[in-house]
């Protein structure tokens, strides 16, 4: 994901989540509320691609992303749109760190079993479903751009012929962050 795509994604997300006064200070307008509502209700990636919210994101992406309209690229952006719409508070904490943070009863916010299921997701729809559930458990408080980069990395790894070195795989990075946060 290049910096122009990151900037476009951040502006798109902010248009749905920032208050009108915050957007006005940035010289932007709020997105129609239906964008967020439709994306939150989507049950699969195909339906997300048909929403106004996804269309608004896709049309604002840099021409380099929009010109490489292969199945993998459009699925990646639909996955990102479906997932980041559940991020309520854009902070610096990564998904795995937020999931592994311990609560008052000395247990992680997201159980090890649920986190392992997230790491083991095999299909794009399964990953999105598990990410959405994880975001609900952590109250949508995560770095939106880091989450988008994680999804992008998952898509890359999913379509690779050869497996990456273990320390570069997303599931390993997530596990390290998850257990580090649980200390």
Automatic annotation (TrEMBL):
It comes from the Bacteria. InterPro entries: CRISPR-assoc_prot_Cse2, Cse2_sf. Transmembrane segments: none annotated. It holds the Pfam family CRISPR_Cse2. NCBIfam families: casB_cse2. This is CRISPR-associated protein, Cse2 family.
